[in-house]
Amino acid sequence: MPKRKRVQREHTEDWKTIQQYTLWPEQTAYELLRPVVLFGDPAIQRAKETGEPRPTLERKADAFDEQGMVSLFASRPRKQPQETARSLPPDMRQLIVDLRVELPTMSLREIAEICEARFQRRPSHNSVKMVLASGPPPSINTRRYQTWDQIPDPAERRHAVVQLHAEGWSITSIAEYLATSRQTVYTTLKRWVKEGVRGLDDKSRAQSAESRDNGNCQRDSQKAGKSADW
Description:
The chain is an all-alpha fold.
């Protein structure tokens, strides 16, 4: 199944949310005018919804009626707008805040790298810092995983390591979050790369079970031999 290129979001008519979703000034300008030029909504109604002055909306709508989409573009080519904390998608802003809750010591650089792994877009360190200062409230209030020693099942421990690493967490952060050593995290990931899902199983248990099965087989063979002799 091909990987989705864009993040799927719920449809909304909330103007503040739409502003966060749009990437280009022309796109924002059209979304501002769309209810007026497409559905014929009164400019005064759109002004109340967006905070844009009614005369400005009417002037832009008239220009759109005369010139079409060309009216939304600047007369001169311009560079891509500078990124701000507000320009980041809401789901990325939420992730940034939640990461700080999960691991307060995680660096701005690593948070940006995890965002890039998730959204194929890397925010600047300054944007990450601004989101942490003024972003949305956290969506989580408990740990996703207990510490290494508190997870009774060895396979679940190793799954936690693999999952966090797949999300872009560094070995150092995973070790700190799970309260285990970097070597343990490294060894777990190495086993995962080499053996896949089988690498999550507890080797000591598997070996004990194998030894037990071998012992049972030997005893059965001996019993079978004695019965044959009898």
